[in-house]
Structures are given as C-alpha cells and as structure tokens.
From TrEMBL:
Its EC number is 2.3.3.16. One of its GO terms (molecular function) is citrate synthase activity. GO terms for cellular component: cytosol. Pathway: Carbohydrate metabolism; tricarboxylic acid cycle. It comes from Archaeoglobus profundus (strain DSM 5631 / JCM 9629 / NBRC 100127 / Av18). Belongs to the citrate synthase family. Transmembrane segments: none annotated. Pfam families: Citrate_synt (PF00285). This is Citrate synthase. GO terms for biological process: carbohydrate metabolic process; tricarboxylic acid cycle.
Amino acid sequence: MKMNVEIKEGLEGIIACKTSISRVDIEDGKAVLEYRGYNIHDLARYSTYEETAYLLLFGELPTKKELKAFEEELKDLRDLPAQIIGLLTHLPPFTHPMVVLRTAISYLGSMDKEKHFMDYEHSIQKAKSLIAKIPTIIAYFHRIRTGQNLVHPNPDLGHAENFLYMLKGEVPDRIEARALDVDLILHADHELNASTFAARIAASTLADMYACVVAATGTLMGPLHGGAAQKVIEMLREIAVPWRAEEYVLKKLERKERIMGFGHRIYRNVMDPRTIELRNLAKKLAKMKDSKWFEIAEEVAKAVYKHKGLLPNVDFYSACVYACLGIPDDLFIPIFAMGRIAGWTAHIIEQYVNNRLIRPRALYIGEKGKKYIPLRERG
Ligand code: CMC
C-alpha cells in the first residue's frame, strides 16, 4: 500500500480540524489569541470566568439576563453527590489531585443515567455540571486530605471566589479572587492543545462527555503540558534566591534538560499573550504579598532567554500567581483543568455536532513478514 510518507513529528503545523472556538495567530510579529473572536486581553480586563465560559459554550457574549441565569445554574450545580464525597474520602490522601479529579469525573459519569445522550441540550447540561463541580472536587479533596471540615459552596460568591473560599475556609479578598478569576479566563481555551485534541479524539468516537473529559484530564497532567506549572514552582523553590537563577539555568541547559514553563509549539519567538497578562498579575500579587517568587521567576526568565532564546509560556507566571495565592503546589494542574473545562466541553460539543472519526495513519517502520516459530521450537 502506498502512503504519503511526509511525517510531521508531533503533528507540528498540521491542521486537524475546523473550529470557531478560539484562534491563535501571529500577526505583524505579535501573537493573537481570541475566544469566539474576542481578544484575550479584553476578556482578561473586562470579563469574568462565568461570562467567558458562556461565550465559549454558546458562541456569543450573554446579555445581563442570560449571564445571571447561567451564574445561578452553575451555583445550583456546585455541590457534589454523597457518593463522590465518599470517593474523595476513600482515596489515599497522597493521591495526586489530578488523579483524584480524573477519577471523580469518571465516577460522576457512572452516576449520570443520561451520559450517552449526546444531543446539544444534554451536552450543554453536562458541561455546566462539570464546570460547576470541578472546583468543589478539588477543594473538598484538599480539605479531606488535610483533615479539615468541608466548606460548602457559598451561593453569594462567584466561581473563582467560591473556590478559594471552599479551599481555605475564608472569603478571599477582592484582589485575590479577581486574580484567580483572570487566571481561569486565560486558561479557558487554547485551540488544539494536546488535552483538547485528546478530548476531541475521544468525542470523535462518540464516547460520552465524561470519558472525553477524563481523556483530556489525563493528557493535561503531563509535564510538557499543564504539568509544567507544578514543575515551575518546584524549580523556583529549588533555586530559592534570585542570584542563583542563572547558575541553575546554565547547569540545566548543560545537562540538556528542559526548563519547565519555557517554550511553546506555536509561540516560538513571540510572547504568549496569556504570559503577558499572567506576568502582570504575578507582579501585582508578589508586591501585595511580599512574595519572593516573582523576583526569582524574573531572573530565571532573563537567564533562559539569554542562554537559550526561549520565552516563558502560560505555565511560568501562573505558578507564581498560585503560589502568591497560597495554593498548594499539587493543585496547580487541577486549577488549570478548572479553567480549561470550559474549552474542553465546548470542543467536545463542536466535535459531536460535526463529527467524523479522527483516525490518522502511522508509517510502519518495524520488521515485516517474519516466520512464526512455535514456542516449543524456540528453546
Ligand atoms: N527548555 C530547554 N530547551 C527547550 C525547551 C525548554 N523548556 N523547550 C524547547 N526547548 C528546545 C529543544 O530542546 C529544542 O532545542 P534544539 O533545537 O537545540 O534541540 C528546541 O527548543 C525546540 O524544541 P521542541 O521540543 O522541538 O519544541 P516542541 O514544540 O516540540 O515542544 C514544548 C514544545 C512546550 C513541549 C517544549 O517547549 C517544552 O518541553 N517546554 C517545557 C515544558 C512546558 O513548559 N510545557 C508547557 C507548555 S505551554 C502550556 C501548556 O500546554 O500547558
């Protein structure tokens, strides 16, 4: 059989589907990221996570009335069934919270009698439920593993604010809540990133939405994707003081090791627009909290650029933001998922609506036509 043998490693530059959810482009030497046609900088300045999630799911900005109704629906869906709380209690406390999240989402799927209904209305309902419940799963597991009482969702609080409240047991101040809100907006979607592609591949087989989100969650966890955020804070802790940053970077590069939070498949020589926003947030929070992370991060960024020419990506300064918010290191990736769930579900629905099985080919490079020798003759 003849095959087209041009292979793009890592599918670099391959257009695998059409989407009208988000657009990443380089225009006049600058990176542009838009959700449904709206620039990420405007969304970070003026929108809320709830409004952005609505935009991603429905394709248009909501009216005041629509947004209020959407926010109320999310609030009503926040709490978890007793079985899920039971699961969170039974999982070993050392389980990585991303594994917990993946498992809890799968369990939620097992409880949804309508999980196989893939029409638009049912899919939107499942998306809302997942957007609402993921923060509760993360916060409840953290409270359980640290032996603290559960803090139930507070309907007076917005999405990001309520998450910090459930996690820490105190209503956060306005600046902290807004910082997380903006962070979630910035993480809400990013075209065909690896986890979204995993979700779309699963959706293309007509797997149910929970199965698709489990595929995405597993994919996000890897250190070359969302897992980088946790690795960034581990690196900053190891460096500990700004003046050791350059030496640390040089040693890593000498050993040909990757520096987490740097490099991007699309933003090669241009700054990721999300990084610009997150750097501003990290700077503001570090000043407010008298935190050293931003200063160390800046020295790392200078050294990586000087010695390897790489720019920081979305995971780099978001690690500083989370650290300044007092979020435990292993919750960094789950918070990425908490933002990205809006994009994942929007992409799953887009795939269902105009589906064709995603099934590429591989070029076989192994041996061919070998003679099978029965075990008794192989010695
Ligand atoms: N540290 C050191 N060298 C790097 C890094 C890095 N973080 N990233 C890329 N390079 C080098 C790589 O070694 C190669 O160099 P050379 O040409 O000398 O061999 C060159 O840059 C091109 O790298 P690549 O592996 O071909 O790039 P890619 O598009 O396949 O990989 C990436 C993109 C994000 C996986 C990679 O940059 C990386 O491993 N970064 C660190 C992990 C990370 O921060 N991931 C988060 C990605 S952004 C948000 C997200 O998806 O969550």
